Every structure is written in C-alpha cells, then in structure tokens.
## 1
Amino acid sequence: MKPFLYPTIMILSFVVGQAQASGECCYIAVGIVDSSCDLCTPGSCVGTDVQCISSTQNNCDERFASWCPDDTGAPTPSPTSYPSYSPTAEPTTSPTAYPSYSPTAEPTTSPTAGPTTSPTDSPTAGPTESSTEGTTDIPATDPVPTSTSAGGGGDPHFKTWNSTWYDFHGICDLVLLDDENFANGLGLTIHIRTKDRYPYAYIESAALQIGEDILEVSSFGEYMMDGVSKVDMPAEMGGQFLVDHEQKSDKEHTFTIKVGESEAIKLSTFKDMVTVMIENGSSADFGTSVGLMGKFGDGALLARDGTTVIGDHNLFGQEWQVLASEPQLFQTSSQFLGKRCVPPATTKGRRRLGVTISKDAAEKACDHHKDMKMQDMCVFDVIAMGDLEVAHAHGAF
C-alpha cells in the first residue's frame, strides 16, 4: 500500500496537547490524537488499528506519513475502539464499534438466531442465542388507520384516505367513491360532476346513492331526492340513514348523512362550488371502497382492476371517469358520457381576472386555515378564480 500523505494544514488540525519529542508519533484516528504514545510500533499506545504520523521535529506537521501494518491479523475478541484501516484476515463474530474502512475477506456472521420482538434503541453487540419472547409494544409496520377523512372540492382538490392531496381538472362525471359492501351490502356510490371555469374546473354537483335512494346536490344548495326537488328534510336514505339540511346563508348549505356515532358524509355548497367530504370514515364502513379517494388506509391510487397503482394524477382521474356502462346517478346526462374527460379551456378572461386578486389579499382571506397545505390550496383557488369569497368554500374541507 502506498503511503497516504496528509497536507500540513490537516495534520495541524488534529494535534492537541503537547508537541511530541523527536522520534515519537502522533496517532490519528477519527479525528482523535493521543499525544502520549511513544513510538510507531505495532501494539503501542492505542494499537495497530490506527494511522500513525512520524515526527522528528517535535511536532506533527511533516508532509509525509506511513501507515501502521496493513494486516491486523486475526479478528479481535471484542469490538475495537477505532475502525481497522485494513480488512481483518477473517470476519469478526460481532459488529465493531465503528465501520471498517475496507471490506472483510468474507462476510461477517452477525445476524441474530431469531427475530427480536421489538426494535432496539441501538444496534445489538452480537447475535442473540434465541428469539425473545413476549409481545411487541410497537408494531413492525404502520397500522392501517381505523378512521380518517377524505373527499374533494375546490379547484378541485382531492384528499385520499391517507390525507394526501392531489388535483385533477378534467371536465366530466367522476366516481368519487364506490363501495358495494357499505352497510352490510346496501351499497354506497358518490359521483361528482365538474365544470369548466376559465382554465380551471370545480365541482358543480354531486350525486350520492345509498341503496335505491339518490340525493343530488348542486350549486347554491339546490337539491333533489330521488328526482324530486326540495323534499322535506330530514329525509331517509336506504331505509336506515337520515340526511339533514342546514342553510347558513343564501350562499352556504350543508347536507349531512350520519353514518355512525362520529362518521358522517357531508355535501357542502358555497355559491356554485360543491364539496364532498367523508369525516371519520372507518374501515368497517369504507374499507373496501374504490374511486378518486384511493384505497382505504394507505390511499394508494388504484386503477379499476384493484391492483395497478397509477402514479400520474391526470391518468388516475381519467381512470375513474363514470363509464356509460355504470349507473347514471344525475338526473341529466353528462355531455361527456362515452367521451374522455376534457381539460378546462384557457381564456384571456382568466388571465385578466387572475391579476385582480393579490397574493397578500388571498392569504388574508385564507388565514383561517391552520394547515399550510390547505392554506396554499385556498390561496391558489382565490387567485385563480378571482374571487375572495372562494376562501369560504374551503371551510368545508
């Protein structure tokens, strides 16, 4: 092995303590200097597993160096204080305190005889003779959440079952959620219809089916139950769920379907924008659901085949366009039925409107959101649509 030359400035940075007498050595390893060593002799001072720099001028600033012996011989019975600069002749039987600077001739034999029941705070010194007993306090993998929230609204933005957000601006009817096992086989389907607004889109209406009953909610709180407009509320769906209607103002309406003690499906409108959110959804009720909200638990964006993961949000949105072969929940047919979703049109009007709302004004309108992701989406929508009141629509998220 060729000598390794340390520049003068590097050697000086390592030296601490008194200068060495003529013929003594500075032992250097991992930035530590032992100024008490005598000679560059294998086994002296801190041993043969460190680098020694020869000194003949009462200091350690010479521009030449030599290594301690290349071969450290047989492995040490216990971890060394510093890493070896050359591989041991045979692999060590337990891990050393620091990594070796070169690989061993053969793999080390340090796996445990059996799995540990829970992770250790730091690496173990050697293999365990047998597996430990007892249950783990911490699961080996992330558990599937027992409840969570998901839905869509705004520009529109979609929230998956693992609280990840993504955008899809295609204009068409879309399957937000479908779960044939909901309520012991009663079934739940939610379709949304998006509409063009400048180069962006928004959810214009939503249709929700439980059993044979269909609730359709559209802009400014207009609604129909099984094709009948403005039926008395609360109304029953599927023979066991009640839907209630709350009107906060002429611009704000909320339709709530209680699913369980804390679970609820909410369809909210602010002006002409519709938001659909499932709050505190459980795996018992939504565990087999599919659609734009992804797979329950991990939020995987699965295709209709139930196994293929689609990484592109635009392709994923198109995957869940309502097909002509599927039930049509809206009273009026989609103009894009049997056609691909189309992107919003770009107009000069949008660009002109976009500059009428400053970022500062939009941020002030959206400051009720404590979550930064929600605030960013709100600011984006306010500026894109040129309407400060759009910030109120995000209160439904």
## 2
Amino acid sequence: MSNTWKRVFIALCLLLGTVGGFAFYFWQRATRLPDWYTANSTVEPINPQIVAQEAEAQRQVVTQKVDQVVRQANAGESVAVELDQKELNGLVQSEVNRSVKKLKVAKAVEGVNTSIRNETLETGAVINLNKLSETSLSSQEKEALTRVLQAFPALGDRPIYVGIEGKPRVENGQLVLDESTRIRLGGLSFSLPEVAERLGIAPEELQERINVNLQLGDLQVKDVELQGDRLVIRGAAAN
C-alpha cells in the first residue's frame, strides 16, 4: 500500500471513529431517562393506573384549595393562588390523563412529571411505544405513530422521555408556553420549528397541541407567574 493510500485509510478510520463516537454520544443523550422516573422504576414497576389515580386525587386537592380562596372573595374580585411543584404536577398530569385516556396510545405513557426550575416550567412523560399494538390503533393514531417514529427512530424500542420546557402564560383559559419553548427528547433539546419540521406539520399546529387547559373550579384564570419553585395563578372569582 502506497503512503498516499495509507494516509487516506488512516484518515477514514479517524473519521469513522469520530462519527461512531458522536453517534454513541447522541444515542446516550437521546435515551437518557429523568431521575424522577428511574428512582421510582428501580424500586417497583410503575403502575399507570395508580399514577393516574394519585394525579386525580391531587387535582381534587388543588381544586378544593382554589375553591376555598374563591369563596372568600366577591364575584369578579381578583384572587391569586400559589401551587407548589407537587400540586402543579398533579394538576398537569391529571389533565394529560383526561386528554389521552380515550386513546389507545395512552397505554404507552408510563409516567408524567412537571417541575419548575430557573423560572422555567417543564412538563414531560416517559413513553414506551413497545406497549402499543398497531392493530389496536385507529387510522389517525397509526398515521401519527408512523410520523413520530420516522422523525425520531429512537422512540421505537425502549422507554424514552419526551418533555416540553418554557415560560408559561394564559390565553383563552389555556396554559401556553412562549416562543422560546424547547422540546426535550431524553437529554437532547430541540426548538418547536425543528420538531415541527421533522413531524411534517406547521409550528403553529404543534404549539396548539402542547397547550394545556386550566380548569380550576370557579376561578377564571387570567395570568400565571413562576416565583421560585411555585406557580402563582391569578384570576377572578366567578361566584
């Protein structure tokens, strides 16, 4: 082998080694699971039904807390309610459960968690698409599943974390995240336009899908604000 070909061969080996190392690093990041999930799953298997029941119970606690504040106010009077991370997590998780419980894809959700960090709200779920049988899905769900797996092949054969992080505001009774919102896939982070492009949909459509309804008894929600590890919800009493 001539010196020229030796140099080309060595260069290719180095390049492949670099690419292989990067791919392995990317894979590790993409399949990283959050601590809140691994801490629970190493003790005992997570039961989605029990998790859903606990979330609904927490939602009832939050609703009672809100109703108590509203009862002490006159109709139309401005009120504010503070929710800690546990209360917020239960509220969001129960809303997610209500949204997907009629869908077959709900079987793939193994856990949902919401947290506040550095004035940013993050909510996400660990999903396991191995639990789904395509024969049990509707045509719309099959199409959505195919689109997701084509965009993110790593989702197909193991539990993986998908999250949303951003700064919240309220629009028309929905909890909406701002334009800087990021989508988390394991330990990787993508902008909304990047994810929308991979899924073949408009960024506005993706934004609409990730909005969360805020129904809190007789409180007409008008604004939210992150303060430390709490979410302050402001609105008016409807009673």
